[in-house]
Specification:
Blueprint lengths: L1 E9 L8 E10 L5 E5 L6 H8 L7 E6 L2 E2 L4 H7 E4 L11 H11 L4 H14 L15 H13 L5 E5 L7 H16 L3 E6 L2 H7 L2 E6 L2 E7 H11 L7
Parallel strand pairs: 3-8, 3-9, 6-7, 7-8
Antiparallel strand pairs: 1-2, 1-4, 4-5, 9-10
Helix pairs in contact: 3-4, 4-5, 5-6
The chain binds adenosine-5'-triphosphate (ATP).
């Protein structure tokens, strides 16, 4: 994915200056990467992800996913990427298997194929034995893994997660990490936004730090953290 000089100004109402959420962000994420976007509240992470997933209109700049300009071709964005939002947003009165199959159906996957994929994804998320339970009875961690499984139903080449572990305990986070590692190892590029440096360090090969709408540092995880340490950079995340 390649983002070039992305800008977003939100309208703040009549006679008020707009809110500059992104002030010229450029970013390159190679295919197969596990990439972390780290930043404090209000840094612009959700805005960036909203634009990449075509939920938010950009003010200027360009976003290409594997060569396709998704700001001109929104259907392509839907085909190429899967999104895991921060909040649990499936109907908890449905069963996991139905949630996945119906989601895939919405994106045009034939039902028989969707059932095959759903089994694969539920197994990978360690939820196969819960396929026919009412999803409101699942634990918090299981619900979050179900959201990851759902996003994978369209076989995206790029999976984007918007602070998927915000406010969840370490045990639940570890379960999600395992699923994400497996997905990445099978070839899907992952971009994860997070407040947790420790999580980014655990999972990701490359990192960008965003603050007040600007990328303040980016590069390979270990080298970047070592450099920031030497420079005495203070990461004021939470
Ligand atoms: P958080 O970690 O709290 O989710 P974030 O890094 O995702 O923060 P954004 O939600 O992208 O940051 O917000 C960036 C800036 O844009 C903030 O100043 C925020 O108040 C502002 N903003 C976000 N959405 C809107 C909106 N719909 N209308 C006006 N301003 C907005």
């Amino acid at each position: 994915m390649s983002i070039h000089d992305l800008r977003k100004t939100y309208d703040a109402g009549p006679r008020k200056p707009g809110i500059e959420a992104l002030k010229g962000v450029s970013l390159d994420v190679a295919e197969g990467d596990f990439f972390a976007l780290l930043g404090p509240n209000g840094a612009g992470k959700s805005t960036l992800i909203g634009i990449v997933s075509s939920l938010v209109n950009l003010s200027s700049g360009s976003v290409r996913i594997f060569g396709t300009d998704i700001t001109r071709d929104r259907d392509a964005a839907m085909r190429l990427m899967g999104l895991v939002p921060q909040e649990i947003n499936f109907n908890t009165f449905e069963q996991p298997l139905d949630i996945l199959v119906n989601y895939a159906g919405f994106y045009g996957v034939p039902r028989e194929e969707a059932i095959v994929r759903a089994e694969e994804e539920l197994r990978r998320a360690q939820l196969w034995d819960k396929a026919r339970m009412m999803s409101r009875t699942l634990s918090g961690g299981m619900k979050r893994r179900l959201m990851i499984a759902r996003a994978m139903m369209t076989r995206p080449r790029l999976l984007i997660l918007d602070e998927p572990t915000a406010g969840v305990d370490i045990e639940i986070r570890r379960g999600m990490w395992q699923t994400l590692r497996e997905i990445n190892a099978a070839g899907t590029t992952i971009i994860l936004t997070t407040h947790y440096l420790e999580e980014a360090e655990h999972l990701c090969r490359n990192l960008a730090i965003i603050d007040r709408g600007t990328i303040v540092a980016s590069g390979p995880m270990k080298a970047l953290l070592a450099r920031l340490d030497v420079e005495g950079f203070v990461l004021d995340i939470d």
